[in-house]
Structures are given as C-alpha cells and as structure tokens.
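User: I'll paste a sequence; please echo it back and then give the predicted structure.

Assistant: Echoing your sequence first, then the prediction.
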Amino acid sequence: MIKKSLADIAAMCGGQLQNAEDATLSIDGVVTDSRQIKAGCLFVPLVGERFDGHQFAADCLGAGASACLWEQSKGTPPGPAVLVDDTLVALQRLAKAYREATGVKVVGITGSNGKTTTKDLVFALLSKKYKVHKTQGNFNNHIGLPLTLLAMPEDTEITVLEMGMSGRHEIELLSKLGEPETAIVTNIGESHLLQLGSREEIARAKLEILAGMKPGGLLVYNGDEPLIASALAEPGTTKPERLQTMTFGLTPHNDLYPSGMMFMDNRTLFTPCGEQADPVELPLLGEHNVSNALAAIAIARHYGVGEASIREGLGEAELTGMRIEIVVGESGITVLNDAYNASPTSMKAAIGVLGTMKGYRRKIAVLGDMLELGPDEEAYHYEVGASLTADKADMLFAYGPLSGHIARGAQEHLTPSSIHAYTDKSELIGKLIEHLHPQDVVLVKASRGMRLEEVVEAVKYSKLDQP
C-alpha cells in the first residue's frame, strides 16, 4: 500500500499542508471508512447526499490515523491535515499519482456479466509469473478503484482492475485513472437498460474503457457479440493510437475459441485453440465461464505466461463466491446457488449450466425477478422462460410479479403441471420443498433484491425423505 510522507501526499493529490511542521508525518495506507482506521493511515472523509465524513475525522485521528484530507470549506481540521477543494477528487488524484510512480502495468476489465470471474481468472494466470494485485470485492467504482490502487504494494508488477458502471462516462473516468495497457470487454448484456435505454448504448459505455488506454494497447473483446465491434467502429468511440485487438468466444470465427468442451460435476474441461493442444480444467461450470477463461488466457499469453502455467493457474483459481456456488443439502440434494445477481444473459447462461448437469433425478429451476431492465422487462422475462426447454429443466418455480412472465414463456416447452409461479416467497418455499427429492438438482437465481438466498438456505436444511 502507499507509504509516503504527508508532504508527498499533499503534492500527489494537489493539496497543501495545514501545518508545515506535519510534512514529515508518515502515512501508511488510505482509509475512507471511519470504522476501519489503522495506525498510521490517511483518513479521507468523503461527502455524500446524506453523510459527511468530516464529522468523524477527530475520532479517526484519535484512533490512530496519522492525518486526514480536509475540504477547505469545512472550517479548521481537528489535527494534521492536507487541505483540498474536494476530498473525492483528491483521492482520485492521489491514486493516479501513486500508480504512475510505481510504473505498474494495468489490465482493465469491464462487461455486463462475468467481469468479476474474469478478473479472478486473469489474476490467477498472471500470478504464475508476476507479482499481481487485483480489485477486491465490488471495489470497482469511482471510489473503489482509487482505493484498490492505493492498497497496491509498491513492488506490484501488474494490477487487474475491474471497472463497473451504472451510466455513461463512469468507465471513462475509471479508465483515465487506471490507464490500462490491456483491457477486456466480457460481453454486452441487459443490465442498466433502465439507465441507458439500449444495448447499443451499453456497448458504447463499456468501450469507454479505451478512453484512458495507453498507445499501442490491446483490447480483448467478446467476438460473439456484434455490438462491440459495431461500437468500436463508430467515429465517436475514443481509441488510443495503434490500438491492437483480439477476439474470444465460443465460435470458430474468433481469434481464441474452444475446440472442445466437456462438463463434469463441478468443473469444465475445454481445449483452447492455439498453442495448447491438451484440454485444460476449469473449476467452474458453464459455457459462459469457458468464454471468461478464454479472455483470461488471451491476457496471460500476451504477457508471456507459459501454457503449463496457464493450466496450473486455471486449476488453482480462487473465485469470488455466490457465482453458481454448488451447495449440498443435509438430505444430499444439490443446489446451484446463483442468487447474487441476474440479467437475461446471465439467467440464460445459468439455465444452460443446469442443462449440463447429469445423473440427477430431476432438474429444477427456481427463478426470480430480474430488476432494472427498463420498459421491455416483461419481454425479457418471457424470453428467459422460453429458454427453459425440456432438456434443461423438468420443473420451474418462479417468484415475483415479473417472473409470472417467465412462467408464461416456459409454457412454450414445459408442461403446465411442471410450472409453478408465486408472489409469496414463503409459499414458494413450502411448495418447492414438497416437490423435492434428495437426488434432484436445483438452480436458484434472481436479482439480489429478491433475496433468493433464503430459498437456498431452506432447501439446504430441509429433511427430504421422499422414496
């Protein structure tokens, strides 16, 4: 993490010392949450619509912080401080200056779905050869990305930055802070349709990752999504000089694609085209995760990671939880817990995973509402239901007012008796458990706001004693 004198901090963030005698104070790390103060850190009091971190500065200094940033309009600071006009802007300037001082190489990752998994895979592969740092948790916005950079050890060789957004120009800001030399766009889904209005506009927003890319940089993008190439060709898309591109995907027209795939109980075997002739093992299920892995392989090969190391890295990857987590209940039933988030693209991918599960008595999908999809939300839910063919699911339990449209769509392929729709979660749980057998496999997926992890917990601890 950043370790500088307070005078250095002031120079890097464009501020000035409150007292010159504090210049030699040592700063060890940066904290914005007053509950996470560490000895010697710099406290950055952020200001929001309903909070003002400045009111906690005195307590933070008393708890061990060496100094704080302080907006000049807030009066006199309660201790050692760097005076700035805006603490958020100063935090971002400090992070950018620190990144530049370390000389670290940056891999930027964005996309509607799969960016966190792809980030974890890129980290695993690059770590076989380099000292690598990555975004932790969901620190992928205008606050989280600067904190990720400032938490980076000075000797880091490559940092992997996840870049999220809810609207236009947000990724542009992150790209200019990170200045990636390589970048990945995983896909273009339907998340943020409510804010952006169309998938075309989402594609343009994701390609803002090029706004800060260094000249000669490499963009690795999903070639199965034509909207990316289309937006990339638009005159209004900002691109670095001498931009290089590489495509990945599941179809052979891409630069990198799988020449074979095999799905096991909790892992996938696939053969990436190119230098690797033998299959590699991925501790994840689903074609969509093969696509994510191919993007990671493209980056690893770009940085000279050998094929044997790529194989090892994929097998050793530590992945962020609640992304099709396999849960085995007390009765022996298998639950695919994917209740972290949902969009039409990720919902169909999860249904595809359910379809690959072999050796089970029945495949049961528990699907809830997908939120923030805009005016076409009913049609998107219907399309998800229509994707439930008999080879992918034997039964559907839908939850939520929008998921009634999933149930309607499911009638295209499933029998009426196998489709159940509820607006009361307790009723759904009760009826679901009545139908379950210990040898079933159950997929649970919805937007986070539907809280379907409650269904996962209920199934996990239920006594299922059907013959």
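The chain has a mean pLDDT of 94. Residues 87-102 form the longest helix (16 residues).
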